[in-house]
Automatic annotation (TrEMBL), chains A, B:
InterPro entries in the cross-refs: His_Pase_superF_clade-1, His_PPase_superfam, Phosphatase_SH3-domain
Source lineage: Eukaryota, Metazoa, Chordata, Craniata, Vertebrata
Organism: Neodrepanis coruscans (wattled asity)
SUPFAM superfamilies: Phosphoglycerate mutase-like
A GO CC term assigned to this protein in UniProt: cytoplasm
Protein name, as recorded: UBS3A protein
Length: 234, 234
């Protein structure tokens, strides 16, 4: 089939995150005494985006490592090699996901053309986050300010205010479903009704690889322990 | 001390090479039936430079892997962070070294300013190369054609025609020495007599880390088995 006419939905996880490499104390390792970021190791990113609230908030919303940026770019290059035409990108509001989306688009040479839609409903199952509150994600304006290619007109299908900490498995599945008010709904509708061919890219978390693909292909949901076991293998 | 006034000689080894990852048969893995290069794995580079002789010659002069390019760029970024001012770059004629030099310069944001001097005398101890002949290195013209930042006016202090296969340890040390007609001589002279401050970067091989640093700091040479043991640890 002509690659340009191919249609599909790609669901991917973010790249390597700094705390995965440097542990929970990563932020302490790369802040000076007066609270300025410096690159304490080459696998830390060269800079952090500016944020209005405190630097401390990065602890609950860590960026990609330098290697994670490299991985994301390579994935974009691989998609370009395969002539995959990405027409639309949805990302979790987590910084690591927005960054992954950005660098995949750079690898695809589409960062000037395709804007990232930040969809709060794509965030990780909050029960699995170490933080007991929903992180203060960078706002769409802050992300755009930091040169991320963001669709500032997209407001999200599942509102950020509806994300609750330690949500139940059922609540998580419901916002991952294809139903109305869910995170997957707009991409599914786009896929089903858009006359434009191309691929919709969804950048989420380990759990997204299961929770966002099952409803899309009509598979029944599994119980939460099977789900956890499956995601652990990601 | 003011970083811009610092003077020194940095000797480094090339980054990860494709055959280190994919083995001796790497070239077979990424050539189509009609002999065209394709990126069979994301850790292969996105393209190979054009060469007038056969593609087969890359087997004896392998390029960097994609990860090797990433490593080299990171080293350049680290030098930039440390405000190291590189004023002059010498590279072994091996493609992996020229590529390392190029990506270090890119990380340093100096690729438009500083040109790479290809010095045949910086090549690996030929006894340690698997090939029983001296590889057909890409010419300076071919490297420039492939967009490497090359000083095409530099002709080399140790001529390529003087490189012999399976050379003795003494011959190798002699071309690595600080004496006249050696590979290190021009950089040493530059270092000693130049009024311009800054750092001279030498990109070579595992063995270079010993053979080019010992004479520069006045250490006596060791016997060949001590030398081999030391380089094995690199």
């Amino acid at each position: 089939q002509n690659a340009a006419l191919r249609r599909g939905v790609l669901v991917m996880r973010h790249g390597e995150r700094v705390d995965q490499v440097f542990g929970k104390s990563w932020l302490q390792q790369c802040l000076t005494a007066d609270g300025k970021y410096y690159r304490a190791d080459l696998n830390f990113p060269s800079a952090l985006p500016k944020r209005k609230d405190s630097m401390k908030q990065f602890e609950y919303d860590p960026p990609l490592s330098c290697c994670g940026i490299f991985q994301s770019r390579l994935i974009g290059e691989a998609l370009l090699d395969q002539e995959v035409v990405v027409t639309c990108v949805y990302s979790s509001p987590a910084l690591r996901c927005v960054q992954t989306a950005q660098h995949v688009l750079q690898g695809l040479k589409l960062n000037q053309k395709v804007k990232i839609r930040v969809e709060p409903g794509l965030f990780e199952w909050t029960k699995w986050e170490t933080s007991k509150v929903i992180p203060n994600f960078l706002t769409v304006a802050e992300l755009a300010e930091a040169s991320y290619s963001i669709d500032t007109s997209y407001s999200g299908n599942f509102p950020l205010s509806s994300l609750v900490p330690s949500e139940s498995y059922e609540d998580y599945l419901s916002r991952s479903s294809a139903g109305p008010g869910s995170a997957a709904a707009p991409s599914l509708l786009l896929f089903a009704f858009s006359a434009v061919p191309g691929v919709i890219l969804i950048v989420g978390h380990g759990s997204s690889l299961a929770s966002f693909t099952w409803p899309l292909i009509g598979l029944p949901n599994r119980n939460s322990s099977d789900f956890a076991q499956m995601v652990r293998k990601v």
